[in-house]
Amino acid sequence: MRDLRFRRSGPYVLLALTCVAGWAFKGHCGASWAADEQYLTGCYSDAVPFWGLRGVAAGQLPYIEARMEYPVLTGMLIWLEGLITRLLAGTRADAADFLFVVSAVNAALAFAVLRMMDRAAVPAIRRWCWAAAPQLILYLGHNWDMLAVALAVAAILAARRGEQASAAALAAIGAAAKLFPVLLLPLLGIAALSGRNRSWLGRFRAAGGLVLAAICFWAAVNLPIALRAFDNWAEFYTFSGQRVGTAASVWEIMAVQGWWNTDLATRNLWSFLIFAGGAGAIVALGWRRHRDHLWVLFTPVLAWFLLTNKVYSPQFDLWLFPFLLLTSRRLWPIAWFAAGDVLAYWAEFWFFASASGGGPGVTQAHIAAAAAFRAVPMLWVIVDAVRSPAADWVMIGGRKGGISAQGGGH
Question: How far apart are CA 178 and CA 160, in angstroms?
Fold first, then answer.
């Protein structure tokens, strides 16, 4: 009985410790930074500048009264966390208090992900891996991407249960927090169009219903703000289009190394074309093995998106990690990816510090090496996903109906 209790509660206890470590990692610098300590010690968090520069301290409404370069659902979460901070700390509230609230809310979302994994009978070792995820230490207090991650996990698990309309709605809501959950929607639509035991009319109706559900839920979140303050609402999309790139993206690495130096328009075009072509190839090659559960291909499509995107911010690794745990057949590429994330994180932050003379002399060559190290397991996951059947615990129904509570090691 004690063993059973430990197996059930152990991951939750470990996750609590991981979340405390995540808050301490970002919070030790306090409400302001001296010199380059935010890069040298890794404590940089968007919460600190946002407290003063995005009207959070003053309680200004995002988009209506203050700038916000995040999608609407994230912007409203930031406003709500600011309100909680001011209620808890009163007039003495500062950026450190806000960072604590942001970390606490993200911790609650991390627990929600663990609970969803638990209810879905994801193998125990994979729940332990989520509870101990290095990404949670690095990014729990970094920004607000955990909201979209939790919604995307809920969407994937809904698709796994065969609740396609719920999956489409959750993915659409997730896209109102951060764009990447939208990558699930084409997979759901293709699956509906190719459904077995349905006439073509039935298939089109099913696909149309998913499209309608996604549009309605996304619009319900976005339209009230878009109609009132369109320019501020659109800033996330215009800002994304105007960004040249980040140091760890393949495009910036190629430019710095002199392999292919692209301007913004060229980079936007080719990053889209290469992503779209690769995503199409993933679906086409994975079709034979995964036709009845195309949602499994969300993981390799997301990995390909990260590899080909012009922006690869460090916290993007948090997007991918839970889906590797949910769908990857083996654990060793997940561990490799986690190690690569840690290397890339410190390479990029120490590079920022080194640029002003205060760092350990990290160059863009070091960033390229760390990014390449991280890319290898991502490419392995992509290839393995299209060449191999889904793991036993992923499937529902038929011979693979049972989901082991203990297996999944390899």
Answer: 22
Backbone angles phi, psi at 66, to 5 degrees: -140, 150
pLDDT tens for 88-110 read 999 999 999 999 999 999 999 99
Taking the C-alpha atoms of residue 149 and residue 134, their distance in angstroms, rounded to an integer, is 15
Q: From residue 391, give the alpha-carbon distance in Å to each of 37, 281, 378, 401, 404.
A: 44, 21, 17, 11, 10
Q: Is residue 212 predicted with pLDDT exceeding 50?
A: yes
Q: Sort 218 into a burial class: Cβ within 10 Å, 0-12 / 13-18 / 19+.
A: buried
- The alpha helices in 257-363, defined as continuous H runs, are 264-290, 298-308, 316-327, 332-355
Distance CA 384, CA 332 (A): 13
The CA distance from 107 to 407, in Å, is 27
Cα(361)–Cα(347) distance, integer angstroms: 10
Contacts of 223 (CB under 8 A, 6+ apart): none
Residue 144 near residue 70, CB atoms below 8 Å: yes
Q: pTM score > 0.90 for this model?
A: yes
The per-residue pLDDT for 228 is: 95
Tokens of 321: 């990690």
Task: Dump pLDDT digits (tens) for 140-152.
Answer: 999 999 999 999 9
Contact 363, 353 (CB under 8 A): no
CA distance 302 to 180: 8
Q: Encode pLDDT of 343-354 as tens digits.
A: 999 999 999 998
Angle at 379 between CA 378 and CA 381, to 5 degrees: 65
pLDDT at 292: 87
Beta bridge partner(s), residue 62: 66
For residues 20 and 29, is the Cβ–Cβ distance under 8 A? Answer: no
DSSP state of 262: -
List, for residues 33-58, the tens digit of each pLDDT value: 988 999 999 999 999 999 999 999 99
Cβ neighbours of residue 261 under 8 Å, at least 6 residues apart? 254, 255
